[in-house]
Structures are given as structure tokens and as C-alpha cells.
Amino acid sequence: MPSPQLSTPQQPLSPALPLIAMPVNPPPNEPEQPKTEIFDSSGTGLTTDGHDPILDPPPLPEGNATLVGGIVSGVDHVRSKMTLRVFGGGHWKIAYDERTHIFRNGAETTQLAIKKGERVYVDTMFDGKKHEVFARNIRVGIQSPAADADGQITEIDTSSGSVTLRDRINSSPIQFSVNNETRIVYGTNPASLNQLKPGSLVHVRFSPERVNRGLAREITIIAAPGSAFTYVGKITYLDMHRGLLAMENSLDQKNYEIHFDPAQIEGRDNLAIGSEVRIVTVFQGSHYMAQSITLTKSAEAANTEKE
Questions:
Q1: What is the β-pairing status of strands 162-167 and 119-127?
Q2: What is the reported pLDDT for 303?
Q3: What angle do CA 186, 150, 173 make, to 5 degrees?
Q4: Region 4-14: what's the mean pLDDT?
Q5: pLDDT of residue 17
Q6: What are the residues whose beta carbons fall under 8 Å from the beta carbon of 223, sequence distance 6 or more?
Q7: Mean predicted confidence (pLDDT) in 83-97
Q8: Domain locations along the chain
Q9: Cα 176 to Cα 162: distance, rounded to the nearest angstrom
Q10: What is the CATH number of domain 148-223?
């Protein structure tokens, strides 16, 4: 009897899987290429002075620069402005930007060198278009020159010929002596040591024997208490509430702080930064006090004349 044939069991066929249409992701969109716009500065985009308002910084304000020294009491690097406590009194808000040159120890640096508490000297200019004081140059941490001093007499000893001066720049006392060879003038007229009074504003040239002490070669009395002065120029700072203004005198291009009583000033509502005025003052030992303020040209008229 034939042996039975053993058959290998066949694996059951897997049921046919349905075909599933797999989604095909579309290729990512190509990123948009940046567009480059080229500004033509050779056409009408230029201003009349050749300045490109898009690519170039604006030109510096016109007029002479006035040197002012003080201590930085506040700085805003975002808005590019600083507040300066001016030597001798008062606070100025001063703007700066990429046109401003900033120096420390003779080397040019960045605006980060301007810090609260720093002693600085600033070449200021009035920007009539923005109605603000602009810094052309800022020198950080400079000491006052030893052989020249400007300030106010605080003490005089005629017996020993010793004089003490409070320096206008850094408010430190400077002691020096005078002798028969010391030249003393009041303005352009010869003067004597008896005319030198405490409270007088003076300019001194001397050869220092050591720091803050020396023999005066020349003393120029700029103002004595009770002296009257007339200034003509442009208002660079105005605080009607405090009764304080600063003006650039057209005769010597220096800035003077002048106090006034707003209630006694006619036409005070027409005063503004940039106005041209004529001011009669009396020096009262610690400050100038205005006796009269006459508006000679409004700020709008002065700015229109420049344009």
C-alpha cells in the first residue's frame, strides 16, 4: 500500500490590502526675493545745498559755536540727548547725533563715553529748525588749563597780595598772588588792585608755581557787582517759570545766563528760543539780572530769514 504523500500546508494568502493614495506634499513655496530699491540722488531728491535727505546726515546748524562746560546730570542714548549742569549754575538740554565728534584724552570715541557724572566741555550750536541746542564737539574729562583761569573772586588779602578765585569751569578754588608787575585792566582801561572786589568776574593769566597756585601776570575785570551791561543776540535757552534765559551775545559769541522777573517783562509771551533780543542787565555778584528785554526779531522771522 503506497504511503500517503505528505503535503506541506501552504501559507494562507494575505488578503489584498487596499491601495491608499498617500498625499504628496507640494514643494515649498520659494521665498520671496528681497527687492532692492535704488534711490537716485542725482535728481530732484537733493536739497538746494546738495544734501541728500535719505542717505546723508543733515548739515550742521549755521553760526558760531559756543563753548560751555559742566557735569552731565542725565543722558538718554536712545534719544541722543543729555542734560548738562553748567558750571556757574543752570541746566541745559543738549542734543547730539552722528555729526557730533566725541573725544576723550584727545582720541575720538563713541557716545557711550558720555555718562552721568562726567565732566564735559561742549561746542554748542543753536539748531533753529529743531529749536534745540546741538553739540558739535564733546570733550569728556578734560581738566581746565593751568595757566589760564576764568571765574569769580571770593577773597582778597591786599596786605599779602593774595587772591582766591572760584574757577568757572570746575568750581574749584584757585589761589594766586599779585605784585607790582601784575597788569590789571577793567575792560580795556587800566585798573588797580583796589578795584578788584569779591564777587567780580575776572580772567586771569598766570604762571603756576604748582597746581592751583601761582603769580598772576594779568587780571582782566570782566564784571564787578553793580555794573550794567547790554547784550544783543539770540536766545538759546528759556525757562519762563524760573525766570531764566541764556543768550548768545553777538559781540563775543559767548553764552550768558540772565535772570529776569517774568511779571516785569513786556511782551514776554513773544519770547522763544531763537528770538533775537536786546537785554540791559545789572551784574549782582552771583548772576546777571535783566532790567529790560526788547524783542528785535521773533524766532519765526529769524528762522525764515535763514532759510
A1: unpaired
A2: 73
A3: 120
A4: 49
A5: 47
A6: 200, 201, 229, 283
A7: 85
A8: 66-140, 148-223, 228-298
A9: 6
A10: 2.40.50.320
